[in-house]
Amino acid sequence: MADAAVRCREHGHGRHRRRSAQYRDAPWLTHSRGPDRCRAGNRRRRRNAGSWDGSLYALSLADGNLEWAVDTGSGISTPPAVVDETVVVGNGAGSLAALDAASGEPSWTIELPAPVRAGPVIADGTLYVGCGDDRLYARSPTDGSELWSFRTAGPVAGGPTVADGTVYIQSHDDYVHAIDIAD
Predict the structure, then answer these.
(1) What are phi and psi of 84, to 5 degrees?
(2) C-beta of residue 174 within 8 angstroms of C-beta of residue 180
(3) Checking DSSP bridges between strand 116-123 and strand 106-111, what pairing results, if any?
(4) Sign for the pseudo-dihedral over CA of 144, 51, 70, 74
(5) Based on the structure, what is the number of domains in the chain?
(6) Are residues 11 and 43 in the same domain?
(7) What's the pTM value of the predicted model, to 2 decimals?
(8) 171, 132 contact by CB (below 8 A)
């Protein structure tokens, strides 16, 4: 039997579907109130999926039942980041929130100057998030405070990748940027 499946990036429908034949025997299928866009965060017993309806859903991996849903106030177009027992999600209005993975209760919420366009990533104790204001932000995952930012010549579009002391981002300036973060 395949793992449970959540269908992401189904534009115009509010229905999660199994993506391909590899999920044919998945034990459940679930629905949301809007089209979904995610690389759904997965932690032990739940999957978190953001939706264009502005909600972040926590679904049980065992049976697909909804554990909680949080309305973020605007559509979610990037996947959430999940680390330890925290889920971090950004939305189209520029809100960035850290939520308790078990309950959905917010730990903190901050307002960024533009929509979140590149899914948040937490690596080596730092939260990285790309925005439509042409910046990659490095923030504290504990309270959202800004550590530093890097400006590109276009909106940051690709989710950050962190490896060997470097964070890589894609921007609409037609470049992939490699930012040394070892210092």
Answers:
(1) 50, -120
(2) no
(3) unpaired
(4) positive
(5) 2
(6) yes
(7) 0.77
(8) no
Residues 12 and 81 in one domain: yes
Sheet of 95-100, strand order: 81-83, 86-90, 95-100, 106-111
Q: Output the pLDDT for position 58.
A: 87
Q: Which residue range is the domain that position 140 belongs to?
A: 114-183
Of the residues 111, 142, 167, the one at which a domain ends: 111
Do 77 and 142 have their domain in common? no
Strand partners, 98: 88, 108
User: How far, in Å, CA of 14 to CA of 12, rounded?
Assistant: 7
53 confidence band (pLDDT: 50, 70, 90): confident
Tens-digit pLDDT profile for residues 93-110: 999 999 999 999 999 999
Give exposure, 75-88, as e/b (b: 16+ Cβ within 10 Å): bbbbbbbbbeebbb
Residues 21 and 70 occupy one common structural domain: yes
Output the six-digit token pair for 112: 């960024």
